[in-house]
Structure prediction request, 410 residues.
Amino acid sequence: MAFSKFGLSRPLMDGIRAMGYVEPTPIQLRAIPLMLEGKDLIGSAQTGTGKTAAFALPILHRLDQPAGHARALILEPTRELAAQVETAFRDLARFATLDIAVLYGGVGYGKQLEQLKKGVDIIVATPGRLLDHIQRGTCKLDRIEFLVLDEADRMLDMGFLPDVRRIIERCPRNRQTSLFSATIPPEIETLVRWAMKTPETIEIGIRRSPAETVRHAVYPVSDQQKSDLLLALLEAVNYDSAIIFCRTKHRADRIANVLRRNNHAVAVLHSNRTQREREQALRGFRDGKFEALVATDIAARGLDIADVSHVINYDVPQHPEDYVHRIGRTGRAQATGDAFTLMVAEDGPHMDAIERFICRKIERLKLPNFNYTYTTLFDDSLEKRGVVAGRARGARIRGGYFYAPSKKRR
Ligand code: AMP
Prediction:
């Protein structure tokens, strides 16, 4: 089906064409008509499915002309996401005359105040900075007609739900509310009951499944060899662009240094970096100045970075849903990509939880020609084929893995 069936305004159709979208994605097919009808909507879909345009297009169509006051509010958990969603709105509305402002912390108030003073139709914001503006009396939500709670599960994880509630209380009751979340934990269900009117639910694919077009693999390795294996993997796959996820800011900096020493052009994204540094990192990565981006989960949540050829989990995600979110960086909107996870013995339970969560087993692989310091069992099938039975003397099994006595321990 073509976009023309939705009956969207001419400037929007021109915007869609300029973006190069040919057909609506599944979530757009289902969400756009419902939102155009004015229904409240819960979309459980990951990033990478085209969900931003799924809510942006009907809102832009229904706003139509500038009114000089805020009529649509989109809440995002992070500044990067807010900036990205604002860009998507601007891109789609490039032939329309609506005014859009993005409000997030970590930057001065000047430009935001200026925009608010002039009057904006659409506000894309993170909860903290928006509340600041409300408290200073520089932003009013009493004429909001469209409210979008994007990445609601991440707002919950980041402790933003009380702020989100405070913001919703400032919006008129008579509004259209949509909520997007990859998972719907009980706290979000409570929010839905409180904030929404008999919403329709759209679930795209199996709610928990990561992008179908991604090839997944787990590379078991010892902790001491992780960075060597990362370097060898990057070498072996001949990647175009890779995002490397790790657990902490400190680790992110350390991995980036290792990569730099080995002649990779690397940017780092974590919350200790200034807003300017984060923007530079993202811009450089998008423009191809950096071929690798090392990031922590929170910093990279939901970022729309096109054409990432590889996602590498340097650390196994602690929460299974983070695996799905991380993998969402590759295979976005019908593209393909590889997702590799480095796994140490202690990660066994987390990896099991991920596989249960996504309802599939991920292949264990061994990188050819890599000088492993121990032998690792890669999957149950090896165990079933009796590899364990024939193990070397002195070997032991820990966390489901088989370690041959290693000659070299670093
Ligand atoms: P999102 O899930 O909103 O983060 O979108 C992921 C990517 O898909 C973005 O780069 C969008 O520009 C792109 N996209 C959204 N809708 C379409 C479409 N109908 N056809 C092709 N690409 C799309």
Notes: The longest strand covers residues 214-220. Confidence is low (pLDDT under 50) at residues 376-410.
